[in-house]
User: What shape does this take?
Amino acid sequence: MYLQHIHLINYRNYENQQLNLNRGINVLIGSNGQGKTNLLESIYYLAAGNNFRGNKDIELIKWDQPYLRLIGQMKKDDSERCYEMEVYIDKEKNKQLKINGVKYKSMSELHNYLRVVLFSPDDLKIVKGSPAERRRYLDVCMSQQDKFYYRLIRDYDRIVQQRNNLLKELQYKKENKAQLEVWNQYLIEYGSQIIYKRLQYLKMLVPMARKVQQALTCETERFSVTYHCSMGAIGDFSVEQIKNVFQTILAQKQGEEIARGTTLWGPHRDDLIFYLNGMDLKKYGSQGQQRTGILSLKMAELQTFYKLHGEYPLLLLDDVMSELDDARRQFLMKMVKKYQIQTIITGANIELLTDEMAENEIFWVQEGKIITK
Ligand SMILES: Nc1ncnc2c1ncn2[C@@H]1O[C@H](COP(=O)(O)OP(=O)(O)OP(=O)(O)O)[C@@H](O)[C@H]1O
Ligand SMILES: [Mg+2]
Assistant: This one.
């Protein structure tokens, strides 16, 4: 897919900026605080319907303005048709989405059009952060690929909330115990499917990530990821087998769950463990190795998307190139060129620029304005 054009009106520090993007590489260069990440963020918004830096929608509106408008025009690889996505947000908390002029209630409609894989310095938390960060990473990336998964995790979260409320209630209202069986069945049904889907997805993602890591590091680094299930080893289990394990655990540990008033087992308690040459990457990896591991995962994410949908998402690289050594940077550039992945790279230093880059691939960002030479 290909984002051809973007128009930002009152978005962060941009007042009125239009930009034609290249089908291949686009490099945004500028000093700190000029608007590079803001631009990537606006592209991400058009894909995900939310903001990756965790800001409220209203904070995206230019400070002295009452509303923002974001318009993107894109093409998918299998047709000549152009899609126009338009997001409007104002300070009265009104929000509107239009796709080719048709209004939609939910921003999640955007998930059917533009897809992006973002790699930013903040992503180090996928390795360094808490298990919740890794689950979030996996859930966001799988939701992009699979709408059914997106609904599963949304519904599962609600089930866990309701079940937690009931577990707390059962500490003093024992007569409500029959209700727990009903919630257990929902938890097992939804939770087992989530675990199964995660395992299937990792089966595709991890071998690809391993290959990328080997190529990025001239075969010196072996990368691998395992799924750590709170209920114990589940290996190659089918959904039915996972359900049986889940059922047994809930029956055995009912007393403990009521005493603690919370759901102690299920996919919301699981984790991913990353290994580099057999050692735990979180505990022993250098910062550059952790970053490379995440980069391999992100590149593998692009490839799994291609495998499932027949086209590559956009690759957004925010400020990460300068952290990679020359060999890793060159491999990355070769890879995006080979697969014709539309890529938008930001950086504060002109060392990012190489002789092979054409003038029209370089954009200068200055105080919320983008200048081409
Ligand atoms: N709602 C807003 N309205 C106006 N300006 C904003 C708004 N939100 C953020 N800004 C400004 O946008 C500027 C640029 O932010 P951005 O994160 O894009 O910088 P950057 O070019 O990526 O810098 P760096 O190299 O430091 O990452 C900041 O100086 C900030 O003050
Ligand atoms: Mg930035």
User: Anything to note?
Assistant: The chain is about 40% helix and 25% strand.
